Amino acid sequence: MTSLVIGTAAGLNPYVALLVTGAIAGWTSRLPIAPELGVYGVGTWRLLALLAGAALAMDLTLGKVRRFAWLMRRLSEASSTVAGAVGASMVCPEGFPIWMAAVGGSAGSFAIAFMISRIASHGARSARWVGMGDVPVLMGAATSGAVIIPLAVVLPLAGTALAILIVVTVASGALIVVRRTPKTPFQSVSGKAEPARPTAS
Predict the structure, then answer these.
(1) Is residue 99 part of a domain?
(2) Where are the alpha helices (DSSP H) in 91-200?
């Protein structure tokens, strides 16, 4: 499995990425750990999975409450940098500088998380979704993140191909929503409520 897969998953949902990665590393032998991190026992990865699971539960509940949605999304974006760095470092190939994998994973994960926020914010402003359009976006992102890591463990090429497809889809979606502005007031995951100015379609 490549660092790209875990980095992508961390951008989609950092808690899911750490939960799945930690569980596979802690309870199975299917995930090849980088030699520099091999000194840490399975207990470390199991603890990581448990902590990520607790954080995920908070994210899936409070993140859907309008009062806390903005804060939880900002925390998710910040956590994506950590999750991307940790995940990419865990599967860093032997001989490749681990710090480069960490920096690349962190930057890539944050970029994906930022684009997810833009798409979710657009969904929250959509009249068709009565102000709840961010929920399917964020839930879809979390589900995708949970799928690609186990898939990459079993079928590396398929998992990597799916991760690339997801990155392209998210980037395309973010580009599309930048060009559109819904005509309804909103309270979104990107900030405080304010009216959106209509634009020509």
Answers:
(1) yes
(2) 98-124, 134-154, 156-178
Asked, for residue 188, whether it belongs to a domain, the answer is no
Give how far Cα 15 sits from Cα of 93, 131, 173, Å: 23, 25, 22
C-alpha span between 161 and 93 (Å, rounded): 19
Residue 49 gets which letter from DSSP? H
Residue 45 neighbours by CB under 8 Å, 6+ apart: 21, 22, 23, 25, 26
For residues 161 and 123, what is the distance between their CA atoms, to the nearest angstrom?
27
Domain membership flag for residue 186: no
Is residue 200 in some structural domain?
A: no
Domain that holds residue 167: 3-178
Contact 187, 66 (CB under 8 A): yes
Span 48-64, average pLDDT: 91
> pLDDT, tens digit, for every residue of 138-187?
999 999 999 999 999 999 999 999 999 999 999 999 998 887 755 544 44
Number of domains observed in the structure of the chain: 1
How high is the pLDDT of residue 53? 95
Cα separation, 17 vs 26, whole angstroms: 14
* Amino acid identity for residue 115 in this structure: M
- Residue pLDDT, tens place only, 62-95: 887 878 888 999 999 999 999 999 988 888 878 8
